[in-house]
UniProtKB/TrEMBL annotation, chain A:
Highest taxon in the source lineage: Bacteria
Protein keywords: Phosphoprotein
InterPro entries xrefs: Bact_StressResp_Reg (IPR051932), RsbRD_N_dom (IPR025751), STAS_dom (IPR002645), STAS_dom_sf (IPR036513)
PANTHER family: RSBT ANTAGONIST PROTEIN RSBS-RELATED (PTHR33745), RSBT CO-ANTAGONIST PROTEIN RSBRC (PTHR33745:SF3)
Domain STAS as annotated: residue spans: 159-270
CDD domains: STAS_RsbR_RsbS_like
Keyword check for Phosphoprotein: yes
Protein name: Polyvinylalcohol dehydrogenase
Native species: Asanoa siamensis
Entries under Pfam families matching the protein: RsbRD_N, STAS
From TrEMBL, chain B:
Protein's name according to its UniProt entry: Anti-sigma regulatory factor
SUPFAM superfamilies xrefs: ATPase domain of HSP90 chaperone/DNA topoisomerase II/histidine kinase
Organism taxonomic ancestry: Bacteria, Bacillati, Actinomycetota, Actinomycetes, Micromonosporales
Naturally occurring in which organism (per UniProt): Asanoa siamensis
Domain of life: Bacteria
SMART domains according to UniProt: HATPase_c (SM00387)
Pfam families listed in its UniProt record: HATPase_c
Histidine kinase/HSP90-like ATPase domain residues: 40-139
UniProtKB/TrEMBL annotation, chain C:
PROSITE patterns: STAS
CDD domains: STAS_RsbR_RsbS_like (cd07041)
Name assigned to this protein: Anti-sigma factor antagonist
Natural source organism: Asanoa siamensis
InterPro entries: Bact_StressResp_Reg, STAS_dom, STAS_dom_sf
Domain of life: Bacteria
Gene name of the encoded protein: rsbS
Domain STAS positions: 2-113
Top-level taxonomy: Bacteria, Bacillati, Actinomycetota, Actinomycetes, Micromonosporales
Family annotation (PANTHER family): RSBT ANTAGONIST PROTEIN RSBS, RSBT ANTAGONIST PROTEIN RSBS-RELATED
C-alpha cells in the first residue's frame, strides 16, 4: 500500500488504539448516505470486519494491496462490494463504506494538537484508503457486469418460451427482433424441449418477427437440420412476405422444410402427420 | 483460485494409440468444464479435439496434444496444440476441403474442426510435420 | 478393448453405446452387429446413443456403415437418443448422417421400425398397384 514498514506499524497502531470509537464514528459516516437501507448493526459488523482486515494486513507487513499478505483484506473488500452490487447499491454508495474511514479518522485523531508525525501518517493513510476505495470500485463494477450479463441471459430465456401444444407437438412462437445470440438460445431451448417432452414435431412460428438476416435464417435452418438428426421434424409458420423475399434474395435454400401460413395451419399439418403414423402402425 | 485448472500450465497427452484419442477427449472435456464453456461449446471443442487427435495418430504417425487454459483479460478460453513429426500436408487448401480424404475417412475432420472452434491455425509442409493450434473462448 | 453389448429384445437388436468408444471398439461393434443380424434373423436394429456426449466423423461414419450393412442384410437401423448439443455440433461439423433413420428415444425408434416394415406386407396397397401395372392377369 505504498508504505514503509515503520509507517505501516504506526498506522496499524493508530487504527487500533481507539478501535471502538473509530469504528463507531466510521459506521456513522457510512450510515448517513445509505439512509437506513442497511441496519446499523449490519453496517457496524461490516465496518469492524474491514477494520480488522486492514489492521491485520498492516501488521503482517503488507504494504501493497497486490501483496500475498493482503489476501484476507482483498477477500473482505470483494465480499463487501459484491454484496452491495447484488443488493442494488450504487458505486458511490459502495465506495463510501471505505472512504468513511477517512472521516472517522479525522473525528477520532486530534488533528489540531497532533504533531507533524501524526499529520504525515494521516496523509499516508489517506493514500491507503484511496487505494482500497479504488479496488472496491473495480470489484463492484465487475460484479455489476456479471449481474447484468446473468439478467440478460435470463431475459433471453424468458423471451423464448417453448410450449407443448399437443401430445407430440411443441411450438416456439418467436416475437421481436431475432439476433444471432438469441437465435442460438432459441435453437438450444427448442431441441432440449423436444427431448424432454419426447415430441417428434416442432413448430417454429415467426409471425412476430419483423425481419431476418442471413445469420438468423441460417440459425433457423441449422435448428431444423439438428432436429432431424435427433429424429424430429420442424414446421415453420408465419413467414411474412418480406421475409420470404429476403430468404429467396439471400439464396438460402429451405429445401424440403415444411412451411405454413399460420401456427394453426402448422398444427393441423403436424396432427395429420401424427395421425398418418398412427394409422400406419395400427394397420 | 482453484477454479483456474491448468491456467498457464499446459497439460500434455502423448498420442501414440487409439486409447490416447479417448484420453485427449476426456482431458479437453474436464478443462472445458472448468473454464465454464457452455455445454454446446464444450461439445464442439471436444469433437474438434477428437478429430485432430485422430489425424495426429493416423496421418501424423503419433505425436502429442497440449491443452492450456488461456485468459485474454476479457474472457477465458482453451487452447490446444496438436503436433506431430509426420509427413506434413503438402496441399493445405485441398486437405481443408470438405470431403477430401486420403485415408478413406469422411474428409470432415480438418474442415469441420475449423468450423467448431474460434481460432484455427495450422503450420505444416511436406516432410516437416504438422502443428495445429485451436482456441475456443468462453462466451 | 471394450466391446459394446448387442441385446436381442423381441425381434429387435438393441445396442446401447455406454462407453467413450475407442475407434477399434466402434469397428468391432460394426462386425458384431452384422453377425448378430444374420444369426438372429432380426429385421430391426436400434442404436441408442443417449450416453454419447460427442459424435465425431469416425463414429458418424460407423453409424452410416451399420445402417448400410444392416440394409443389405434386410434389417432397418434407427439411431435414437442423440443429445441436442451433439446434434448442433454435427450440423457445424458438416455431418449429415444421410440414409440413417433417427428417433428421439427408444420407444419412438420401435414405432419407426414397425412402420418401416409395413409396406413389405403382401396385402399392402403399394404392391397391388405395382402388380396392376403388369396387366389384368394378376388381379
Ligand atoms: N496430421 C496430419 N498429417 C498429415 N496429413 C494430414 C494430417 N491431418 C490431416 N491430414 C490430411 O488431410 C486429409 C483430410 O483430413 P480430415 O479432414 O481429417 O479427413 P479424414 O480424416 O477423414 O481423412 C487426410 O486424409 C490427410 O491426407
Ligand atoms: Mg480426420
Amino acid at each position: 500500500m505504498g508504505l514503509t514498514a515503520a509507517e505501516g506499524e504506526r498506522i496499524a497502531a493508530l487504527l487500533d488504539t481507539q478501535a471502538d470509537k473509530l469504528t463507531a464514528s466510521w459506521t456513522d459516516a457510512v450510515a448517513a448516505p445509505l439512509r437506513g437501507r442497511l441496519t446499523r448493526a449490519e453496517l457496524q459488523r461490516q465496518v469492524q470486519d474491514l477494520h480488522r482486515a486492514i489492521v491485520e494486513a498492516l501488521r503482517a507487513g503488507a504494504f501493497d494491496l497486490t501483496d500475498e499478505r493482503s489476501a484476507d483484506l482483498r477477500a473482505t473488500l470483494v465480499e463487501l462490494s459484491r454484496g452491495r452490487a447484488r443488493q442494488g447499491f450504487t458505486a458511490s454508495e459502495t465506495a463510501v463504506t471505505v472512504f468513511g474511514l477517512k472521516q472517522a479518522l479525522f473525528d477520532v485523531v486530534d488533528v489540531r494538537g497532533g504533531d507533524a508525525q501524526v499529520l504525515a501518517d494521516l496523509l499516508a493513510v489517506g493514500q491507503v484508503i484511496d487505494d482500497l476505495g479504488l479496488f472496491t470500485f473495480e470489484t463492484y463494477a465487475k460484479a455489476r457486469e456479471g449481474l447484468i450479463a446473468d439478467q440478460a441471459e435470463q431475459l433471453l430465456e424468458l423471451a423464448t418460451p417453448v410450449v407443448k401444444l399437443w401430445e407430440g407437438v411443441v411450438a416456439i412462437p418467436l416475437v421481436g427482433t431475432l439476433d444471432s445470440a438469441r437465435a442460438q438460445v432459441v435453437m438450444e431451448r427448442l431441441l432440449e424441449t423436444l427431448v424432454e417432452t419426447g415430441s417428434p414435431y416442432a413448430i417454429i412460428d415467426i409471425t412476430g418477427v419483423p425481419a431476418v438476416d442471413t445469420q438468423v435464417a441460417q440459425h433457423i435452418l441449422k435448428t431444423v437440420v439438428a432436429a432431424r438428426l435427433m429424429g424430429a421434424e420442424c414446421i415453420i409458420s408465419g413467414i411474412r412476405p418480406q421475409i420470404a423475399q429476403t430468404i429467396v434474395a439471400l439464396g438460402i435454400e429451405f429445401g424440403d422444410i415444411a412451411t405454413k401460413a399460420t401456427l394453426a395451419d402448422a398444427l393441423r399439418h403436424a396432427l395429420r402427420l401424427i395421425e398418418a403414423t398412427r394409422k400406419a402402425r395400427s394397420n | 483460485m482453484t477454479t483456474d485448472v491448468g491456467l498457464g500450465e499446459p497439460q500434455l497427452v502423448t498420442i501414440a494409440a487409439d486409447e490416447d484419442v479417448v484420453r485427449v477427449r476426456q482431458l479437453v472435456r474436464t478443462v472445458a468444464v472448468a473454464a465454464k464453456l457452455s455445454l454446446v461449446d464444450q461439445t464442439k471443442l471436444v469433437t474438434a479435439a477428437s478429430e485432430l487427435a485422430r489425424n495426429t495418430l493416423v496421418y501424423g504417425g503419433g505425436g502429442g496434444a497440449e491443452v492450456t487454459v488461456v485468459d485474454s483479460g476479457r474472457r477465458k478460453g482453451i487452447r490446444i496444440v496438436f503436433a506431430d513429426d509426420g509427413p506434413g500436408i503438402a496441399d493445405l487448401d485441398l486437405a481443408l476441403t470438405d470431403g477430401y480424404t486420403t485415408g478413406g475417412g469422411l474428409g470432415l475432420g480438418l474442415s469441420g474442426a475449423r468450423r467448431l472452434v474460434d481460432e484455427f491455425d495450422i503450420d505444416t509442409a511436406a516432410g516437416r510435420g504438422t502443428r495445429i493450434t485451436v482456441t475456443k473462448w468462453a462466451r | 478393448m471394450d466391446r459394446v453389448p448387442v441385446l436381442k429384445i423381441g425381434d429387435l437388436l438393441l445396442v446401447s453405446i455406454q462407453v467413450d468408444m475407442q475407434d477399434q471398439t466402434a469397428l468391432a461393434l460394426q462386425e458384431d452387429l452384422a453377425e448378430r443380424i444374420v444369426a438372429t434373423g432380426c429385421h430391426g436394429v436400434i442404436i441408442d446413443i443417449t450416453a454419447l456426449d460427442i459424435v465425431d466423423s469416425f463414429v458418424g461414419r460407423m453409424l452410416s456403415s451399420i445402417a448400410s450393412i444392416s440394409r443389405v442384410l434386410d434389417a432397418e437401423t434407427v439411431v435414437v437418443g442423440m443429445r441436442p448439443a451433439v446434434a448442433i455440433t454435427l450440423v457445424e461439423l458438416g455431418l449429415s448422417l444421410d440414409g440413417i433413420r433417427t428417433a428421439l428415444n427408444v420407444e419412438r425408434g420401435i414405432e419407426l421400425l414397425a412402420q418401416a416394415r409395413e409396406p413389405e406386407t403382401p396385402d399392402d396397397l403399394g404392391i397391388d398397384l405395382d402388380l396392376d401395372r403388369f396387366g389384368p392377369a394378376t388381379s
